[in-house]
TrEMBL record:
Listed name of the protein: Membrane progestin receptor gamma-B
Compartmental location: Membrane
Binding site for Zn(2+): 25, 177, 181
Organism: Acanthisitta chloris (rifleman)
GO cellular component: membrane
Membrane topology of this protein: Multi-pass membrane protein
Pfam families: HlyIII
Keyword check for Membrane: yes
Lineage: Eukaryota, Metazoa, Chordata, Craniata, Vertebrata
Length: 244
């Protein structure tokens, strides 16, 4: 089904980012260099997930009145650019950890918050229409749940709760990074369910032609190639990173 290509791209990124995160946590103990490189790949996978979301949103989530608009045509190319910027900024943030830890944290948070906010512009507009005019779309509630989980994920990542309130009591169970991952995966689950409903509805209405397999795969390939180039450059620059 050619209509399913954006969904397949999105599903691929949904598999990649938890796998990359698991590998980063598993192999980062091998050495300091391995730790940095593992997390470079982790950040790149999260950036690819934002592109997968953008591809699915462009095909299935966009409001009907925005379809084939200038913004709709620029949406995926901008998402590709955001993927590269996100990977670059998040990887660079590791070079700031020793001398500027707060700036490093802020840069890393911005690297993932900005692509999410950009990807969600059509979704936020649909929320606005639902509040202003009312709606009966079955996917909206799921989108709300996904949005709540996304904001919880960001808040927990930035605040380091609950361990900052009781240091030493959440080292094994209940650490903010564990809660961060749980909220992230729950958000992806709700997002997937919502996208499936929107996809079925959009397919039945036949509002616009779906992007071709070439368009979908080329966006993924370009982003992946540029992200790998960023990872390679940052990995070669590791000898110049300040060490604690």
């Amino acid at each position: 089904d050619p209509h399913a290509w954006p969904l397949l791209a999105y599903l691929l990124t949904c598999c990649i980012y938890p796998l990359a995160s698991s590998c980063a946590h598993t192999f980062s103990t091998m050495s300091t260099r391995a730790r940095h490189i593992c997390y470079f790949f982790d950040y790149a996978a999260l950036s690819m997930y934002s592109l997968g979301s953008a591809l699915a949103y462009s095909a299935y989530i966009f409001p009907e009145e925005w379809i084939d608009s200038t913004f709709h045509h620029c949406y995926v190319p901008m998402a590709v650019l955001n993927t590269v910027l996100s990977t670059s900024l998040s990887c660079y943030s590791r070079f700031l950890e020793v001398e500027h830890p707060r700036l490093s944290k802020a840069s890393r948070t911005l690297a993932f918050v900005y692509p999410y906010l950009f990807d969600s512009i059509p979704l936020f507009y649909r929320f606005y229409l639902c509040m202003a005019e009312g709606c009966s779309e079955g996917s909206i509630l799921l989108h709300y749940k996904h949005t709540v989980c996304a904001f919880l994920t960001c808040f927990i990542f930035a605040s380091h709760l609950p361990e900052r309130l009781a240091p030493g009591h959440f080292d094994y169970i209940g650490h903010s990074h564990q809660v961060f991952h749980v909220c992230g995966i729950l958000g992806t689950h709700f997002q997937l369910e919502a996208i499936m409903l929107d996809m079925a509805e959009r397919h039945s209405l036949a509002l616009s032609l779906p992007p071709s397999s070439l368009q979908t795969l080329s966006s993924m390939a370009i982003s992946m190639a540029l992200s790998l180039a960023v990872i390679t450059l940052c990995s070669l620059s590791l000898p110049f990173m300040p060490e604690p």
